[in-house]
């Protein structure tokens, strides 16, 4: 059967001497794997279509298993992301995270639009830490691990005037009286909690220009990283590379 879809390349790998297999996050058909014959050859007309982050229209034939590309057209190449180390690193993380967390049937219009909005925001040079933190929040929610941030996860009471602690292990916030249930729970500033709650309500398509202080930005990054590690525990190559970049101050 012949399919025509709009999709974003979230993974591209060599196959044989001159071929590539790409994984597409499509708007209408979830995640699909497509074999692109001859894509590695210098004069291949499909070479640009297999580049990571490329958004295009793909026409492929598929019965079962992998599809085989017949034709394609680039809608947005996002070459700016591939040409900048920092942007490429964050974009790779966004793609790998989606690929690893969500099953084929879970991806669709919503996730296609979230990923596209993430790549577009990175292209527009919005703060990659803020963009990634919001994206991680959406991933956690989609995987069923969205943190409980409005009231204490232990006693269930709202304590608007009291300092709350973030417990990545328990998956939410703890009031002072319940902190003993998770002694390593992290203190969180009111600004960081307000931003996290905003992230829980927003999706990336609605994100405008948010001005975040460096301190709050670093706090959000630390909290979201802890949630991701405790709730999902994924070992991602792109995450490790981001860690190395941070370690060496890149």
From TrEMBL:
DNA replication/recombination mediator RecO N-terminal domain boundaries: 1-78
Pfam families the UniProt entry points to: RecO_C, RecO_N
Domain of life of the source: Bacteria
Gene Ontology terms: biological process: DNA recombination; double-strand break repair
Any GO CC annotation of this UniProt entry: bacterial nucleoid
Alphabetical UniProt keywords: DNA damage, DNA recombination, DNA repair
SUPFAM superfamilies named among the record's database cross-references: ArfGap/RecO-like zinc finger, Nucleic acid-binding proteins
Described purpose of this protein according to its UniProt entry: Involved in DNA repair and RecF pathway recombination.
Similarity comment text for this entry: Belongs to the RecO family.
Classification via PANTHER family: DNA REPAIR PROTEIN RECO (PTHR33991)
Alphabetized HAMAP family for the sequence: RecO (MF_00201)
Protein name: DNA repair protein RecO
Gene field: recO
């Amino acid at each position: 059967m012949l399919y025509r879809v709009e999709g974003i390349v979230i993974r591209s790998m060599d196959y044989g001497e001159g071929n590539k297999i790409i994984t597409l996050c499509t708007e209408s058909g979830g995640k699909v794997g497509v074999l692109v014959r001859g894509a590695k050859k210098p004069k291949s007309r499909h070479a640009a279509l297999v580049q990571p982050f490329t958004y295009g229209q793909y026409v492929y034939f598929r019965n079962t298993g992998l599809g085989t590309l017949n034709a394609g057209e680039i809608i947005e190449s996002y070459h700016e992301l591939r040409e900048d180390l920092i942007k490429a690193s964050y974009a790779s993380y966004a793609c790998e995270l989606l690929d690893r967390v969500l099953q084929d049937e879970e991806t669709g219009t919503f996730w296609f639009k979230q990923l596209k909005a993430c790549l577009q925001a990175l292209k527009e040079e919005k703060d990659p830490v803020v963009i990634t933190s919001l994206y991680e929040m959406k991933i956690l929610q989609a995987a069923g691990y969205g943190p409980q941030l409005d009231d204490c996860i232990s006693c269930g009471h709202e304590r608007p005037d009291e300092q709350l602690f973030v417990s990545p292990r328990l998956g939410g916030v703890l009031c002072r009286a319940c902190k003993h249930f998770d002694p390593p729970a992290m203190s969180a500033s009111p600004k960081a909690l307000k931003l996290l709650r905003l992230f829980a309500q927003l999706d990336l398509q609605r994100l405008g220009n948010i001005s975040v202080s460096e301190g709050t930005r670093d706090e959000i990054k630390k909290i979201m990283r802890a949630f991701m590690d405790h709730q999902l525990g994924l070992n991602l190559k792109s995450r490790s590379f981001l860690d190395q970049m941070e370690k060496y101050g890149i």
